[in-house]
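#struct-pred

JT: dropping the chains for the assembly here, can someone run the whole complex?
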Amino acid sequence: MRVISVVGARPQFIKAAPVCKALRQSHEEILVHSGQHYDYAMSDVFFEQLGIPKPDFNLAVGSGSHGRQTGEMLGMLEELFLEKAPDVVLVYGDTNTTLAAGISAAKAGIPVAHVEAGLRSFNKSMPEEVNRVLVDHVSELLLCPTDAAVANLAAEGIVDGVELVGDVMLDTARFFSERSGSTDALERFGVREGEYFLATVHRAATSDSAQRLESIVRAFSRLDRPVLWAVHPRTAKNIEAFGLGEILERADHVRTVPPTSYIDTVALLRGAAGLLTDSGGMQKEAYFFEVPCVTLRDETEWVETVELGWNRLAGTDEDAIVAAASDLPRPSSHPDVYGHGHAADAIVAALEARFGS
Ligand code: UD1
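RK: done, full complex below.
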């Protein structure tokens, strides 16, 4: 098979790493980076640490409004897809890069395979929800991480081409967890095993709202443990723009640092008492490593983490965040709801069965 894989944002690098490796054992892969994430800490460091091959093409699209960013990618990807005529275009997750690649391939008459298909927050005001719904509806092969994802697709009438393959982030987490154990990340970041919260906030819905971001900052400043907050560039700009820096300066126990690399993130997560996040992927990574999570959103796509008691949805209310973080869940059971860390092989097998000659 000739497969074009399209990535562009941080979580997609983590998902693509094991799939690239498995795919290249017997097939031709052309790797395209849209350039949606471009800073060293948001992109290159993941390629280096995860051993992802250098992209064959980088569209260097950069940041912009959703329409402009997606539109620019659409045009460039269409040209590339028509020229290279792959058997299938492989897309990941729910970013604008996923949407552009999915629509572009479908319009060019090339089949689309979607890794992490079937996820739903049922909140259409999230750009990611719009992206994932649209991409699922143009995909020929829908590679689902969970039973819930398969059921979501069935509820929308999508049953053909649906495969349950497990969660590919678990492949990456398992592969790198040993290496994360041998870093000195905790020492470098000045935190002690089991004593601190790791925090991340990056979603537009959370960090572009002055009121919500202030509420989160105020909640962090009231917590009774150290908080190590790895701040996304979007959030860093907004902390400054909304004048929230002063609250953080007064809270000695809250330390903000730039975005962390994959291996540091895993090490810091494994060592944390709990995770405070609005990220989807990190709610799941917390589950993989049996770290309790407080989600700074009202809903989640990763419903299993909540149903099994490892994750609490606190939204962005200041008191609710403080209450949830002060009473971290620690359930006794931890079933393998995300598979066993072999999703990349299952993805390649499903691609071969559908598109291999
Ligand atoms: C994007 C995805 C989101 C995913 C997240 C992972 C969409 C709609 N959103 O959100 O689903 O969870 O990536 O991190 O696709 N910026 C930099 N340097 C970079 C990249 C971004 O400074 O390398 C800043 C820019 O100011 C930019 C802002 O961050 O405008 C937002 O970046 P963008 O890629 O639009 O969205 P994310 O919030 O990263």
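JT: nice. The first strand starts at residue 2 and ends at 7. DSSP finds 17 helices and 13 strands in the chain.
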